[in-house]
Design a protein that fits this description.
Layout lengths: L2 E6 L11 H4 L4 H15 L2 E6 L3 H10 L7 E5 L8 H9 L4 E5 L21 E4 L3 H13 L31
Bound molecules: 1,3,4-trihydroxy-5-OXO-cyclohexanecarboxylic acid.
Length: 173
Amino acid sequence: MKRVLVLHGPNLNLLGTREPSVYGTVSLPEVDRQVREHGRRRGVVVDCRQSNLEGQLMTWLQGAEREGYGGVVFNPGAFTHYSIALRDAVAAIRVPVVEVHLSNIHGREEFRRHSVIAAVSRGQISGFGLGSYLLGIDALLATNSSNRPTGRTGSPAPRPGRRRPKSSRRRSS
Ligand code: DQA
């Protein structure tokens, strides 16, 4: 993976002044700077974009592969909790998407505890502030190129150390 796209959803342009007790005091340009720097250390080019508009985020997700990105780190903001359109966009694309949140959404209000995006993402990282984005990049680099969430579809992965039943073993000649 050579290029990663970081997408910030609604209200994240206000980082630094928005509810600092929840989201911290670091501004969005500073988050982006550190995220790009982290990517550089890992050998990937990171581009960061923010939009308050659902349709714009959808267009960027749909175009990610065409634009040459190997993966997307996505903080959908409040859309996390109800945007079926963004959920469908994430499910539709082939590049892996990692959902990230600055705050730990599972420790907050009830309405924030559910993500409609999580099940179609490769995984979710929540609660580490700016670190969630850095971990998101590392997670993408550790993942294979498909956006299929592990453990959600298909047959279960074989348990390590277990032999397959005799009937399904290949003969070696
Ligand atoms: C957020 C959590 C969301 O519930 C909230 O609406 C946001 C930010 C986070 O990064 O912690 O806008 O995605």
